[in-house]
Design goal:
It is a single chain. This protein is of the alpha+beta class and 253 residues long. It contains eight helices and ten strands. Strands 1, 4, 5, 6, 7, 8, 9 and 10 form an eight-stranded mixed sheet that branches. Strand 6 and strand 7 form a beta hairpin. It is globular and about 45 Å long.
């Protein structure tokens, strides 16, 4: 027990001395984000530890991370909460107006200080019902995007979500897996029975992604978006728990 307590102290000490942002693209000056689908409330964070094991190698204490038992861990990515240091990710994503159009109206530039304040609050904010916001982290520990649930109705068993994947991390299977991780939790743990998302009619990437996952086009709201001097439609896509079980449940067995 003393060994594990000392091991935990050593981990925290090493973490406090770690420098540099959690998003390498920021250091290279090439990091711009891109929204994939839905509405994603703005929020950022460094890596979260799901499991900690202490061992000795050649007389040295070694910290080993194991997240394999977590329901939030997939083969390619995992979902984690926010930390104050995640502000850099959001500030980078804020620079890509073309991707922001897919998420809603364009916003005025936001300062780094505002992002820092927001993430500090997000890291300790109390959970509101089943509306959650997560960061998406790949197996290399890089933040590659974010996803958040919203519009949940426990009585009916209905919810929605918004998703964003950075441009440089698209077409790697991250978006598909993170959506299925979220759906599995809502369908199999919270007993929700239906998910519905809204996609801009010009967002072809998101349309293709969700149709590939088995979402059905359920309706079109005409001329509901105005951007670049034009009106666009909003498409409603839905997936039931039965459709999820038939198409995807075997992937988690």
């Amino acid at each position: 027990m003393v060994l594990c307590l000392f091991c935990s102290f050593l981990f925290l000490l090493c973490k406090s001395r770690t420098t540099g942002p959690p998003f390498p693209a920021y250091q290279r000056g090439t990091g711009k984000g891109g929204l994939i689908a839905g509405r994603v409330p703005c929020s950022p964070a460094p890596r979260m530890v799901s499991s900690l094991a202490c061992s000795t190698r050649k007389g040295r204490l070694v910290m080993e991370l194991d997240t394999s038992a977590s329901i939030w861990q997939g083969k390619l990515v995992r979902l984690r909460s926010h930390e104050p240091g995640d502000w850099e990710n959001y500030w980078i994503w804020d620079q890509d107006s073309e991707s922001e159009r897919k998420d809603g109206p364009l916003s005025f530039p936001r300062s780094q200080e505002r992002m820092k304040h927001w993430t500090q609050e997000a890291a300790v904010r109390k959970q509101e019902g089943n509306n959650w916001n997560f960061l998406i982290e790949n197996n290399e520990g890089k933040v590659v995007g974010r996803i958040g649930s919203h519009d949940r109705d426990p009585r009916v068993g209905h919810f929605g979500y918004g998703l964003a994947i950075s441009k440089e991390h698209r077409r790697k299977g991250y978006a598909s897996e993170v959506i299925l991780l979220l759906l599995r939790y809502f369908f199999q743990e919270l007993r929700y029975q239906k998910v519905t998302i809204q996609v801009a009619s010009f967002n072809e990437d998101s349309i293709g992604l969700h149709e590939h996952l088995g979402f059905q086009l359920e309706g079109r709201i005409r001329r509901a978006i105005f951007t670049k001097g034009q009106y666009f439609d909003v498409l409603n896509y839905g997936l039931t728990v039965e459709e999820f079980e038939e198409k995807h449940a075997h992937k988690f067995s």
